[in-house]
């Protein structure tokens, strides 16, 4: 569905007096100051300008080696834009889970989940907390030799999709497409060494950014070159997925992430980047 929101095409000024973050909302989104000026401009919308680092770059490769201050500023704008987003009719406006609580912007691993859960991150703003998936995830993460301080957790859809009965639902293909620019913006800004996907939906979301042919069942726990980095597909830590991939097996999958991270980085082929 097209957005009912007016696209944020205008340039916005970033006040660089005191460095960002200037403030944080209750959901962990850094406030930024926007003014209609052409002085010292950066762009808020992932749809608005090539400087945003998101999908408006079209097929340009991700920008490399941005200074940390620029990453902070652009992420704050991306998060602010996501919170104002109304592209998906069934999502609650302002409920996007994207902000400081997703993890450090210096993380070498970006974990991509499915979507915020209604009892978990939709309430807390902290991905994978407060529900069964969060409990499993926190038990699995140490097997990868990682803590939450080492990872940034993104989602295929930034808002919580619900069915007609108000229960958690999978994001639709249209919703994944709507939200693809935010996920791409995150990945292109953070430039992680590894992208770890949790479940099939996360893999589908990556394929909307750059087509891949990763099969979860056969390639789980392996590092696959994609979009200038490597993807390690894992199963989602939900109770439903545990029935197909029991906890002990998933723990071994996470341990493979640890061994990949402990190995020298493998150069990524430059061909086929989106
Ligand atoms: S899921 Fe993504 S595209 Fe859809 S309303 Fe939320 S932020 Fe916007």
Walk me through the structure:
The structure is a single chain. This protein has 274 residues and is α/β, with parallel strands linked by helices. The chain has a single domain, classed as Uracil-DNA Glycosylase, subunit E, CATH 3.40.470. It is 30% helix and 11% strand. The chain contains eight helices and seven strands; from the N terminus they run E-E-H-E-H-H-E-H-E-H-H-E-E-H-H. The strands form two sheets. A five-stranded mixed β-sheet has the order 4-3-5-7-6, with helices on both faces. It has a two-stranded antiparallel ribbon with strand order 1-2. Strand 6 and strand 7 form a beta hairpin. The N terminus is likely disordered. The structure holds iron/sulfur cluster. The site of iron/sulfur cluster (SF4) has 14 residues, from helix 4. The site of iron/sulfur cluster has 14 residues, from helix 4.
In short:
By secondary structure, the chain is α/β, with parallel strands linked by helices.
Secondary-structure map with pairings?
Layout: E1 11-13, E2 41-43, H1 68-84, E3 109-113, H2 121-124, H3 132-140, E4 151-155, H4 173-190, E5 194-198, H5 200-209, H6 216-219, E6 224-226, E7 229-234, H7 239-244, H8 247-261
Parallel strand pairs: 3-4, 3-5, 5-7
Antiparallel strand pairs: 1-2, 6-7
Helix pairs in contact: 1-4, 4-5
Bound molecules: iron/sulfur cluster.
CATH topology: Uracil-DNA Glycosylase, subunit E
- Mean pLDDT, to the nearest integer, reads 79
Largest sheet: 5 strands, mixed
Structural class by helix and strand composition: alpha/beta
The rounded Rg comes to: 18 Å
